[in-house]
Design brief:
- With 817 residues, this protein is of the alpha/beta class.
- It is built from 28 helices and 29 strands.
- The strands form five sheets. An eight-stranded mixed sheet has the order 3-4-2-1-7-9-10-8, sandwiched between helices. A seven-stranded mixed sheet has the order 20-19-18-17-21-22-23. Strands 12-13-11-14-16-15 form a six-stranded antiparallel sheet.
- Strand 17 (464-471), helix 15 (475-495) and strand 18 (497-505) form a beta-alpha-beta unit.
- It is elongated and about 120 Å long.
- The model has no long low-confidence stretch (mean pLDDT 91).
Length: 817
């Protein structure tokens, strides 16, 4: 025999009920002998409670609520059963609804709603739903009988959460089923005391009813039908890639349930657990799915853990003081005080020194708990032996659960490491010696992110999921997105890395999809699905992203974006930047950014200098190895390198500039390259990497093109003006050529002085033979003194710059472990 139980979501409307009826009939044919327990129709219990509460205030609005209940059940009846049968059944439904109307009117008159009366009010939900569904089955030619469980489940007088007398109840149920062979449609949630007064069984009461009937009848299995595919590895509202668990032990299910998972409640499992009756959680909307089996037998394990659950909001009370060390009875007094007030403690953690005890409770109890504890220890607080109770708010608890944890080394470390890598701080930890459960208190704002981080670590350990947000979709950003698209399959197949671009933005619009943007048509999606950019809101939301392994990629030259790096890094978001503005702004902000790097969070910016060349990383490695930078010389602008490498007099200088722009080697406005500030910023960044605390004004810059040539409104006007400069620069070129020299725009630092200028170099200079748009940096160091270290390669162009950014992204990915 089997017991089937259907919750409120399964019977939310007439179409769902028809589906449930089909499931019941199919089970009846397959199993032969079943009984079915029903909750109230979805939302009805809440309506009944509200109607009773409003009536008790003497407010006639309870009548509106009653009418809603009345209409809902009458419509359900006539939607499920055709006339004239419905008319016959309506008599019984009207009688029950009239009883409810009279009861609510009585509450309204006396303006009182006792727990006993409220239980009676709530009972109408199950009584009406079970009766209507029994009628529906009868119309399907099924010999079904409405079973009022109040006649069978006997309880004490604790209205609202009655304790069941299992011995008497089991006897009643057995006798009833021995004398009734029809299919029983049973009311869940309700029972009665020895005076036959209606009681309710508390939270999860309908599941409990099913477990009681199953245990009394020694059934082979209890099926709990709900709206999800069994027990999931995590809450799917918070963790999008959560999936169903094939099996759980009773202990695992109880642990997950205690910490908020959508599992049957521990009291429900007790009768079945004692009788060793398996409980299967199934989905009404996917009835063919096998669901989750809860039982005593441990099945073959695939993953290290079974699931992750959480309590969204808790408060943490910390009791500490020098007088607590080694003093017996402190904990007893603390817990006894709270227990006497009915305050449940969710989590306990104590320092081995006994100097402090932390307890987590629901926020609604925090003020009362603090007051009670301080009253209990009033003299100790007065004498300074115990400090005043500290209350921390806006916290959450995460529980990682699994029997297999106790058999596998390193699970706790895996949890803590994954959180640490994503910048999530753990405030308190509790773990029993059984290792069945590791519980952690964290900031509430980091709950969803933490759940996703741990879930990915344990259930998707065979590959990493990395979430990118890319700001800037000009030539570099566009090229980068194309490079990522072309490498996604390779990275997943060869490196087990799933790189998802979850956001794209430019200065005007933003497009976000946390499941990942299809890069094959991202431009079309950006045009049709993007929203207006609100920079302030954008960064607030980005800092609160509840996703693991987030990398913000900045392919802009935007000051506002750069000014938000500090807040992003503080939020545990990795940054990869082509944008030079942050590292070349004020030294104060540069230092603030470095100080904001949280935990294992990374800030990489190789493309700030030399596009894709390993210049910054080389300097960092040299310094880390104990080397000392003595002198830096470099051609650091790919644009200016191209101009002077190709300027030989055959074409005018302005023509070469136009040619460079057409090849994508300049900024949209070439004045941004020709003013030399780009080189100044790059040199400043390199000097700061060596430990210098210079400001941008500390670098002397030679304006090889006079400022007056820049003072025009448009790029076209600038080109017209630049033609006047052609003769000036040609004279300089000829003078250099007469001395067997060439012009190069060089950045230099030595003896504490930094200079950027146009200079003529001879064949003895490494810069003499530069070609195309190559950058070159020459590092004279303590280790590389006789023969300086030279790094050379393309220093401009979307492909190499995007490649440098992509390389930094992969460095962050590798750091994620």
């Amino acid at each position: 025999m089997k017991i089937l139980k259907f919750g409120g979501s399964s019977v939310g409307n007439s179409e769902r009920i028809k589906n449930v009826v089909d499931i019941v009939i199919k089970s009846l044919k397959t199993n032969g002998n079943i009984a079915v327990v029903f909750s109230a129709f979805q939302g009805v219990t809440d309506l009944l409670i509200e109607a009773g509460t409003v009536a008790a205030r003497g407010d006639e609005k309870y009548l509106d609520l009653y009418n809603t209940i009345f209409i809902k059940h009458k419509e359900m009846l006539f939607n499920l059963i055709e006339k004239p049968s419905a008319d016959e059944y309506e008599i019984f439904i009207d009688k029950t609804l009239k009883e409810l109307s009279d009861l609510l009117h009585g509450v309204y008159l006396i303006k009182e709603l006792t727990p006993k009366t409220l239980d009676f009010v709530m009972s109408f939900g199950e009584r009406l739903s079970a009766r209507i569904i029994s009628y529906c089955l009868i119309e399907k030619n099924i010999s079904a009988n409405f079973c009022d469980s109040r006649k069978l489940i006997k309880t004490d007088d604790n209205f609202g959460n009655a304790k069941v007398n299992l011995t008497e109840t089991y006897s009643q149920i057995k006798n009833y089923f021995n004398n009734n062979t029809d299919l029983q449609i049973i009311t869940g949630f309700i029972g009665s005391n020895n005076l036959n007064e209606t009681t309710t069984l508390g939270r999860g009461g309908s599941d409990y009813s099913a477990s009681i009937f199953g245990a009394a009848l020694d059934v082979e299995e209890i099926e709990i039908w709900t709206d999800v595919d069994g027990v999931l590895t995590a809450d799917p509202r918070k963790v999008k890639n959560a999936f169903s668990v094939a099996s759980l032990t009773y202990e695992e299910a109880m642990e997950l349930s205690h910490f908020g998972a959508k599992v049957i409640h521990p009291p429900t499992m007790y009768p079945a657990m004692v009788k060793d009756i398996p409980i299967r959680i199934k989905n009404t909307f996917n009835p063919d799915f096998i669901g989750t089996l809860i039982g005593s037998q441990r099945q073959k394990e695939i993953f290290r853990i079974k699931g992750i659950s959480s309590i969204d909001e808790v408060s943490l009370l910390r009791i500490q003081g020098p007088g607590m060390v080694g003093v017996a009875g402190i904990a007893k007094r603390l817990f006894g005080t709270l227990a006497s007030a009915g305050i449940n403690i969710i989590l306990i953690t104590q320092a081995s020194s006994e100097h402090s005890i932390c307890i987590a409770i629901l926020p609604k109890h925090k003020a009362k708990a603090k007051k009670l504890i301080e009253a209990e220890f009033v003299y100790e607080i007065k004498d300074g032996i115990v400090n005043e109770v500290i209350v921390e708010n806006d916290l959450s608890i995460i529980a990682v659960v699994g029997e297999n944890m106790r058999l596998t080394a390193g699970n706790a470390g895996k949890v803590f490491q994954s959180l640490g890598k994503n910048g999530i701080n753990i405030i308190a930890i509790a773990q029993g010696s059984s290792e069945l459960n590791i519980s952690m208190v964290i900031a509430k704002k980091e709950l969803v992110k933490a759940l996703n981080v741990i879930h990915n670590e344990f259930f998707f350990y065979d590959h990493k999921i990395v979430n990118l947000f890319i700001a800037g979709i000009g030539t570099v950003g566009d090229t980068l997105l194309n490079q990522i698209k072309n490498r996604q399959h390779y990275l997943l197949d060869k490196l087990s890395t799933d790189i998802k671009v979850i956001g794209i933005a430019n200065s005007k619009k933003i497009f976000f999809n946390n499941k990942g943007i299809d890069l094959s048509n991202w431009k079309e999606l950006f045009e049709t699905e993007s929203t207006a950019m609100d920079t302030t809101l954008f960064f607030e939301n980005l800092s609160c992203l509840n996703l693991p392994n987030v990398i913000f990629v900045d392919c802009t030259s935007n000051d506002i974006i750069a000014n938000n790096y500090s807040s992003l890094l503080s939020s545990g978001i990795n940054i990869v930047a082509a944008n030079k503005k942050a590292n070349s702004g004020s030294y104060e902000y540069y230092k603030k950014i470095k100080d904001s790097i949280k935990g294992n969070t990374k800030f990489l910016y190789e493309a700030n200098v030399g596009a894709g060349l390993p210049i910054i990383s080389t300097i960092k490695d040299l310094i880390a190895s104990g080397d000392e930078i003595i002198k830096i010389e470099g051609v650091l602008s790919g644009t200016l390198s191209y101009l002077f490498n190709n300027y030989d007099g055959n074409k005018s200088f302005s023509q070469i500039v136009k040619e460079a722009q057409n090849k994508g080697f300049t900024e949209p406005d070439p004045r941004d390259d020709l003013n030399g500030m780009d080189v100044v910023r790059k040199l400043l960044i390199l000097l700061r990497e060596t430990g210098g605390n210079l400001e941008i004004d500390d670098i002397k810059k030679d304006n090889f093109i006079p400022g007056e040539f820049f003072d025009v409104n448009t790029v076209e006007e600038f080109y017209d003006k630049l033609k006047e400069y052609d003769s000036i620069i040609e004279r300089e070129r000829i003078e250099a050529a007469n001395e067997n020299k060439v012009l190069r725009y060089v950045a230099e630092y030595s003896d504490g002085k930094a200079v950027v200028n146009l200079k003529a170099v001879d064949k003895g200079s490494p810069f003499y033979g530069l070609t195309h748009n190559d950058n070159m940096i020459v590092l004279t160091t303590k280790y590389y003194f006789e023969r300086p270290l030279i790094i050379q390669g393309p220093g401009a162009g979307a492909v190499v710059t995007a490649g440098g950014v992509f390389a930094d992204i992969m460095k962050v990915v590798n750091n994620l472990g």
